[in-house]
């Protein structure tokens, strides 16, 4: 199993979109076949170094990660929304 972790720091004026962003991300459980499991975690501390959201996606392997990243829902409903509101995005991928 490959874990795809994405950390999102929102722009200061975009904090209000967190509920919609979380909903869009969780919809990938139903709309993106390559994603085995999608979890979304919101930051509780709100410290200077904190990111606002963590996306955790489980896929089978590197090939299905590519399928996930190129999925139409991911490409049209998730990525543009994040890009419009994110100040900073970081990712890590690892096998579990």
Account of the protein in words:
There is one protein chain. The chain is of the alpha+beta class. Helices cover 36% and strands 33% of the residues. It has a single domain, classed as 2-Layer Sandwich (Alpha-Beta Plaits). The protein has four helices and four strands. The protein is globular, with a radius of gyration of 13 Å. 18% of the residues are buried.
What's the structural blueprint in terms of helices and strands?
Elements: E1 2-10, H1 18-26, H2 28-31, E2 37-42, E3 53-59, H3 62-69, H4 72-85, E4 86-95
Antiparallel strand pairs: 1-3, 1-4, 2-3
Please report the total strand number as a whole number. 4
Note the gap between the termini: 6 Å
Structural class: alpha+beta
Major pleated sheet: 4 strands, antiparallel
Mean pLDDT reading: 97
Reading side by side through the largest sheet, how are the strands ordered? 2-3-1-4
Low-confidence stretches: none
- What is the name of the CATH architecture? 2-Layer Sandwich
SS summary, helix count: 4
CATH class: Alpha Beta
- Give the overall shape, derived from the CA principal axes: globular
N-to-C series of helices and strands: EHHEEHHE
Radius of gyration of CA atoms, rounded to a whole number: 13 Å
User: Roughly what percent helix?
Assistant: 25-40%
Concise summary:
With 96 residues, the protein is of the alpha+beta class. Helices cover 36% and strands 33% of the residues.
